[in-house]
Amino acid sequence: MGGDQNSKDRCREEITITHDLRARIPSLVDRVVSQYDKDGRFHHVGPEPIPSRRAIIDIIYKTVPILFPGFFSGKRLDDVNARYYLGEEITELFEMLATQIQHAIRHDCIRFNRPCVRCEERSLEIALRFIEEIPRLQATLSKDVRAAFEGDPASRHFDEIIFCYPGLFAVAVYRVAHWLHVNEVPLIPRIMTEYAHSRTGIDIHPGVVIGESFFIDHGTGVVIGETTIIGDRVRLYQGVTLGALSLSKDECPVLRDKKRHPTIEDDVIVYANATILGGKTVIGARSTIGGNVWLTESVPPDTSVFLKKPELVMKNK
């Protein structure tokens, strides 16, 4: 009996201690809140709206199945139900996208004290124009799929590429984000491409201009900077960087809207871990850049650039 009483006493003591510790939380919250505007700390506590990162990721997973109908829907589509299914999905996409675009535009207006741009009406117009753009995006992505099939003998059929290839997913998200970027939607395009970056290891800024039949093979570690221009039928391998030359802190504001990244012309192949830097660097059409090459100068068309073969040393143990 005494043991049971001791156990109950310990339980009551633990409950009291837990309550006393939890009771300290409100004062700690007050301390956290009081620090929001001190020492230049970043926060988003205020009346202006902000887009939802979670909702934008949901938009990606709503858009990709529409761009490739039947692959990611989780149900069979045929001529009986396809129109009804896509009608519902596209309507939901329109509403989701319009809401997030409105938040993004209104956030910019309020936070940066810009003049009113009728954000609700404008967001609906942009979302509707995006829906109108879907057939063209599908046609472009079909060429990307075909480029992957023709450029990779390991692929057995188009379905495998659509289901499995991280490069295609990253490019599909980029093409959606690029359209929004060109149509001056703030913040959302970057959230989209950085999500694709986190999932695939492929970092494509939404401001990049990429032509048709683009293929990233394997893909991990590819970086394509904001002002890069890529022509048609270009192929990149893993670890390729199309970047900017290193800038000082003072140079960054001056060059923020200038061309800082290279131009890759039509039919160029860039092999693994090559690095091509600088806004004045142009890789001429039909050129091949070998693995591990470092370039900060232009290459004329029809040129092959390779490192001299290193000496391989083998010693018998």
If you had to describe this structure to a student in words, what would you say it looks like?
- With 317 residues, this protein is an alpha/beta fold.
- Helices cover 48% and strands 9% of the residues.
- It folds into 2 domains: 49-201, serine acetyltransferase, domain 1 (Orthogonal Bundle); 221-307, UDP N-Acetylglucosamine Acyltransferase, domain 1 (3 Solenoid).
- The strands form 3 sheets. It has a 5-stranded parallel β-sheet with strand order 1-4-7-10-13. It has a 5-stranded parallel β-sheet with strand order 3-6-9-12-14.
Q: Secondary structure elements and their pairing?
A:
Elements: H1 2-22, H2 25-34, H3 53-67, H4 82-111, H5 119-151, H6 158-164, H7 166-182, H8 188-200, E1 203-204, E2 209-210, E3 215-216, E4 223-224, E5 229-230, E6 235-236, E7 241-243, H9 251-255, E8 263-264, E9 269-270, E10 275-277, E11 282-283, E12 288-289, E13 294-295, E14 304-305
Parallel strand pairs: 1-4, 2-5, 3-6, 4-7, 5-8, 6-9, 7-10, 8-11, 9-12, 10-13, 12-14
Helix pairs in contact: 3-4, 3-8, 4-5, 5-7, 7-8
Condensed summary:
By secondary structure, the chain is α/β, with parallel strands linked by helices. Helices cover 48% and strands 9% of the residues. The chain has two domains: 49-201, serine acetyltransferase, domain 1 (Orthogonal Bundle); 221-307, UDP N-Acetylglucosamine Acyltransferase, domain 1 (3 Solenoid).
